[in-house]
Every structure is written in C-alpha cells, then in structure tokens.
Amino acid sequence: xxxxxxxxxxxxxxxxxxxxxxxxxxxxxxxxxxxxxxxxxxxxxxxxxxxxxxxxxxxxxxxxxxxxxxxxxxxxxxxxxxxxxxxxxxxxxxxxxxxxxxxxxxxxxxxxxxxxxxxxxxxxxxxxxxxxxxxxxxxxxxxxxxxxxxxxx
Length: 153
Known about the structure:
membrane, transmembrane helix, UPF0756 membrane protein PACILC2_44900, transmembrane, 83% helix, mainly alpha, cell membrane
C-alpha cells in the first residue's frame, strides 16, 4: 500500500510543480499496480531506461533524418571551437556515465537519492530527467571531490 501512496504523492508533486513527466509516469505506474499488472514492473524497470534513451536519441537525430542538417552544416560544426567543445563534452559525459554505473554497482541503494534528487530537479528547477547514469556519474565526481577536499582538511 505504501507504493501507491508514494505514487499518489508524486502525482500531486508533479501537478503542483507543473511537471507533466513526473505526473504521467506516476499515473501510469499507479495504473499498472491498480490493475494488478505488477509482473510487468521489472520489465518496465529494466527496459524503461533503454526505451527512454531510444526516444531521446530519435528526437536528437530527427534534424538529420528530415534534412534540416546537411553535410555542410555538419562539417562546419565539427571544425569550429563550439563543435570541438561539443565533442569533448560528449566524450566527457559518456566517461562520467561509466563512472556512475560503476558507483551504482558498488552501492546500489544510491538510486534512492538519485531518484529523489531527480524529482527535486524536475519539480523545482525545471530540469529534464535523462537517466540515473548521468546523475550517478555526477554523484561519483562529487564524491571524488569531497574525498579530495576532506583529505586536505
């Protein structure tokens, strides 16, 4: 019963915070529970991130598919300093995501803080949830900085 109460709370938080993503996700999961389809929750948990990332990737690649970005623009972007920074940023993000995955493997209960932190970011800072790996990666970086500073004190 506490799972349903938490989901209703998340629906309310999403509505108050004007976050349709949180409200919709909590509503769908509440419906899954209320119609006794809990057997699908592990599949949603396991494949939901992949499916979300797939659709995120679709939305990012649409300009290529629609022809709005041509080879000329691609070449110009990759030969400019913002383009090079984007390449470095993309490589750094995937590296940080890998560190986040390592951290989650070592300490899986961190997912609770990551989820609550993500909800706070969505509701209060109008953030966009892109997945627990980036949140875990940032946590791993913050952890390393904290250990470094604590060692200096």
